[in-house]
Amino acid sequence: MEFLPISWRLQGKVALLAGGGEVALRKGRLLHRSGAVVNVVAPQVCDELRAIVAQSGGACMDRVFASTDLDGVALVICATDDRSTNADIARQAQQRGLPVNVVDDPSLGDFIFPAIVDRSPVLISISSSGASPVLARKLRAQLESSLPARWGRLADLMARFRQPLKEKLDNIGARRLFWEQTLDSPVVEKVLAGKDSEAEAMLAAAIESADAACLSRGEVYLVGAGPGDPDLLTFRALRLLQKADVVLYDRLVGKGIVDLARRDAELVYVGKARDKHALPQNNINELLVHYAKQGKKVCRLKGGDPFIFGRGGEEIDLIVAEGIDFQVVPGITAASGCASYAGIPLTHRDHAQSVRFVTGHRKDGSVDLDWEHLVGEHETVVFYMGLVGLREICSQLIAHGRAGDTPIALVSRGTTNLQEVITGTLNQLPDDIEGREIHAPTLIIVGSVVSLHPRFGWFKP
Asked: How distant is the alpha carbon of residue 116 from its chain centre?
């Protein structure tokens, strides 16, 4: 993060704007809306900017910049059409410790202006860190079209009821949960429909009946994080992740997904790799119960889907026994996600009429599977966690009747920018990757559908 996004109260503070043309005018409008006193220095100043200066109570100096113009100001904006002039003003301001913005040249200044979606008192700032203001404006336009204008009215309503809620509930955690529930309630729709009085009555009634004990009851969210790409999270998964007080995650959760949690949430790594456990499974189960009994909302993020080789059933066993509320959010399992990103349809009328998901190693670490039922010519077989046992998997499939030239794919770190797809045949692939570094997590796909990868492969990380 190159810039720290902040909201700065400028009411009554003096801002110096160097420049009097169209670019300076845009900044002047923004400063005036924020309540700043706008001083402008430029040999020529356009009429609208001059009017803004007068309305703000500032001064308009029709001349070139002088160092004394920096006296008593809170910030400086350089918007002249001469780069050397902008650089000189910025240098003098920085020597005085004043924050400076240089329009169209962020390298010379200390801060930049984001694109803004204004639903006062709700403000959304979008910045490309100066890399592409056009992109920031494009994103702003998309948000403008999707956010109703009345969101500001909703914020005002909530502000009026903050003190009554504080008097009703002295626990800050309970108050946060109350507001989260309110934002999922009909109160929001009433405000957006312009029925403010009805919304106010509903909110007052909800505060009157608010129960701290009920609001502070712990809950566990068992959430499937998908195979790696954060874009594959479900809406529900994202909502509960951002609602959680505590997030437990492991190494299979894709990079960037944990960053979507609330900034003040406690993040607990319980990562597991083959034969290397940050925490044994029993300890993870107990940890979920421990946090929930403290009244916290606990999100257990699991790669893929919790109920497909995710040990989700084991994790909720103790939760159920302890009488703790829980939700299970399915995720895109690795077989579906990785196969799709590799361009390998798991079923196809000309190749496979069924698909079977199999774990690549048993609880005891062996690869002792029901091989006789895994050799159907018109069935796709997907092995989870099978990299270590790849050679054994291939030899057993051949030994039980699968042709040695059956196509096979090994997908490493599927759906991410580090995805690698290695294809071959049952009798060749183990030798092909011998001594080659393959990164987990991996998925093995066996069947003639793999032959479609060269044609259908669309994801090129």
From this structure: 20
Q: In this structure, what are the phi and psi dihedrals at residue 227, rounded to the nearest 5 degrees? A: -80, -5
Q: Is the pLDDT of residue 395 over 60?
A: yes
Residues 347-365: pLDDT tens digits? 999 999 999 999 976 555 5
Distance CA 448, CA 407 (A): 6
Q: How confident is the model at residue 275 (pLDDT cuts 50, 70, 90)?
A: low
Which residues, other chains included, contact 248 with Cβ-Cβ below 8 Å and sequence gap of 6+? 268, 270, 284, 287, 288, 298, 299, 300, 301
Residue 420 phi, psi dihedral angles, 5° rounding: -135, 130
User: Which amino acid does the sequence have at 198?
Assistant: E
Residue 285: the pLDDT is 92
Chain segment 245-272, per-residue pLDDT in tens: 999 999 889 889 999 999 899 999 998 6
Tell me the two tokens of residue 171: 């626990």
pLDDT of residue 409: 98
Instruction: Please state, in angstroms and as integers, the Cα–Cα distance from residue 121 to each residue in 43, 118, 177, 246, following that order.
Output: 36, 8, 21, 29
- 88/206 Cα distance (integer angstroms): 58
Using CA atoms, how far apart are residues 14 and 8, in angstroms rounded to an integer?
A: 13
Query: Is the separation of the CB atoms in 38 and 26 below 8 Å?
Result: no
Count Cα neighbours of 336 within 13 Å in the Cβ-side half-sphere. Answer: 10
β-strand pairing of 60-61 with 75-78:
unpaired
**Residue corresponding to tokens 């312009």:** 194
The CA–CA distances, whole Å, from 322 to 218, 289, 290, 292 equal: 11, 8, 10, 10
Tell me the average pLDDT across 390-417. 96
The distance in angstroms from the start CA to the end CA of the chain is 23
Single-letter residue type at 151: W
pLDDT of residue 355: 97
The two tokens of residue 31 are 């400063």
Angle formed at CA 340 by CA 338 and CA 344, multiple of 5 degrees: 95
Tens digits of residue pLDDT in 296-307 = 999 999 999 999
| 88-109 mean pLDDT | 94
The amino acid present at 70, given as its one-letter code, is L
Residue among 37, 98, 36 at smallest CA distance from 67: 98
Cα–Cα distance for residue pair 457/461, rounded to 1 Å: 11
The answer to whether the beta carbons of residues 459 and 421 sit under 8 Å apart is no
Structure tokens belonging to residue 49: 């900017």
Give catalytic residues, as residue numbers: 250, 272
